[in-house]
Amino acid sequence: MMLTAVALSTIDKLALVACFLLGLGLWMLLPRGSSRGKAFGLVLTTVSLGLFAVRLWPLDDMVSDIVFYIMTAVTLVSAIGAVTMQSPVYCAIWFALTLLGTAGLFFFQGAQFLGVATIVVYAGAILVTFLFVLMLCNPEGHSLYDRLSWEAGLSAGTGALMTILLTWTAASVTFADARGNTVGPTIAVREEAPATIPFQSSKDAQGRNILAAQHVEKLGIELFTKHLLAVEVAGTLLLVALVGAVAIVAHGRTSGMPVITEEARRDA
Amino acid sequence: MKTDDPSVRWIDEPKLGLTGKMYLPAIIQGLAVTTKHLFGPKMTVSFPEQRPEIGNPLIYRGVHRLNKDEQGRVKCVACFLCATACPAHCIDIIAAPSPWPDRDKYCESFTIDELRCIFCGMCEEACPVDAVELTSMFDLTGRSREEMIFDKEKLLSVYDQTKDAEPMKSRVMGASP
Amino acid sequence: MLAISIEALIKIALLMGGLMTGAAYFVLLERWIAAWVQDRKGPNRVGVPLTKIKLFGLGQPLADGLKFIFKEEHTPRHVDKILFTLAPISILAAALAIYAVIPFGSVLPKDGIPGVSHQIELIVAPGIDVGMIYIFALSSIAVYGVILGGWASNSKYSLLGGLRSSAQLIAYELPMGLAIVGVVLMTGSLRLEDVIGMQAASGIWTAFSQPLGFVIFVVASFAEAARLPFDLPEAEQELVGGYHTEYAGMRLIVYLIAEFLHMITASFLIAILFLGGWHFWGITGSSTTEVTWFQAIARIVVLNIKIFGIIVFFMMIRWSWPRFRFDQLMSLAWKVMLPLGLVNLVAVACLVEYQPALESKLGAVGITASMWGIALVAWIAAGIFAPLHSDNTARKDSFVLEAESRNRGLRTTAPGQAT
Fold first, then answer.
1. How many structural domains does chain B have?
2. Is C249 left (phi over 0), alpha (psi -120 to 50) or beta?
3. Residues contacting C298, CB < 8 A, separation 6+
4. Domain membership of residue B160 as a residue range
5. Which pLDDT band holds residue A199 (cuts at 50, 70, 90)?
6. Is the pLDDT of residue A237 over 90?
7. What CATH number has the domain spanning A2-206?
8. Number of CB pairs < 8 Å for A and C?
9. Is C36–B38 a contact, with Cβ atoms under 8 angstroms apart?
10. pTM: predicted TM-score of the whole model, two decimal places
11. Is B25 on the interface with C (CB under 8 A)?
12. Which among B16, B33, B42 is the nearest to C41, CB-wise?
């Protein structure tokens, strides 16, 4: 409750305005059947991103500043590209770039495994499968219906709402943790990770800091002791999905390749 | 024809043995063959430094030459048989009354467009006096189209160049001189 | 910070220079070996430019590169221009970025280099703890270059090449991953340096203790690098040039360099994961912390000789073995390599369970022998039970067969057929 109160007091009008502008800009950018207002939408989105940028704080040193903000910009811009592109293939490419940016941010925070896993699972497997399907459709061939976003207003509104909530949450967590000493979360570099991770509340997690050296080993121990049940459940779920997929494919097919028998051949 | 056409006879491949099914022995076999060739003798001829061997110059069809007789006169009697036989129409002859008593005509000019020629050897076959012959010279190059149109002098000079290495085919092959 | 950046930049410069020169000269080597195997002499004319010095044709890569640079940069009218340009860039970037985590030697001694007080590790990013997954991530990014190149070209050959290639890359990543997991299980680390260190410490290369994993990995790397007998993405006889049919000039050379880099990466990985990396008995020593200058240089040389040997093997296989058909390729991946990989994984898990036995000589020999036994049995079983790849009988859809048999009153032997 207290946290919420702090959050409410800390959310500023500027962020609210920025979120609203973002929603409006996105709605204009979405493929709605006409290209009217696209340029204006682009301006609005840029302005709102700029408003967010006003609230940014400098990090430890200049190099991490540059790297972090460039990666953030890449992630955000490509995410906007991913939802506003008309051609599905371009959407997929922008989304891949978003994933790369996200992975880069994970890397930057020292979460190497998470970063690499994002690329392998999302960019390497899921999105490639998407592209595989998209490749089979003619670039000009699909109907107008496919190239439009179905609920442009609703989705842009939801996006703006989500951004507001996220900003709110992030602001409240930051301020609650830093106790007025720092303005925002300090970005952790690999070596001095333990003390500066803002979301670490319990001493327990600090004890087995999973972001230090031998990161994967620590992460593995963490996953297979503390979160064993979750890992097993997730694994079982994936197995079930796999078996289900095989069952769907195998359904209604005679097993094995049809063979022409000797007698049928002779008879023919 | 469809694959299930009754006239199609199906032939089964010979069954693979265990070594064939296991792939690795076959790979090693293949590698042995390629390795043998890797170090084996090479067939390439390093051309400008090393001339390829022409198997039988008598049946090789390279650049033409215009043969001369014992007195150094051109043997051609301007009968136009070669020009008629030529499928590429690359021979151009201008005939003139012969200054010599042993024939009526001789060729005042005899031109072969080597760029049009397909080196089929029909002119050689057609010639009744064995005047046109194909030598075993194969590296025929020029820097312009004009250079590649061989006139009488050039064709005769080819004869002078090649007569020692390749005597007139008619003699070797036993035809009338 | 600055010193570390400079060190990293020097390493990157060395690696990039080495790789690009290497790729250029491996093209020459490829042409030489192709020629020698076919009893020809191969390119031997181009030497020092503007002179008559021939140098066995060592100037050929320069001539090839110049030719590509001066060729017309033609973009067909029907292509998607942005993706058409983006595709080769992305494939080359991914192929080069892999080398951030691949060691190209061991370490340099502390003393001897002025201004450096620590051991220099011969790897661009020594801190990355997820090296092998990183390699996987980037090789899956390489698929994008192929898919996009194939799609953006807007040509049937390119599209088919792109489809084939992406299906092949995805399929063979699985057995490759299983083979790598075996190595990871044994090492307990995802770092390539640790894998070499483990092999050097015990003196047993992984290929000896995991023969099955080694074979699977080699086959999968052939497929991942799209080398013969797995070069279906660009099977010239069927697809003209595969996914880079429409490319010319610099974009084409970028694709070709990326392909060669894939092969070099595969050789690096084979050498490092299974053939002991820089380790060779009696020459290089086995400690990763204490090295002399002689050992440090010997390690680099040994690693490079191994890689060279593997690349020659790649090129020899190209002329020894015909291409697979696409369905054969797929059934090899899913029906042979994947089960074999699982067998290997289980065997390695058992091996790791008895790790202490490796300390004694007898135990090590016993375990290694049993791994070879398992490999042999599994391979023979795969040979006997796997689908016959030489089955070339014309195929019919099951409903056609059914209709025919109904018409003629004959039964087909499609097993499990209903009614």
1. 1
2. left
3. C280, C283, C284
4. 57-173
5. very low
6. yes
7. 1.20.120.1200
8. 126
9. yes
10. 0.79
11. no
12. B42
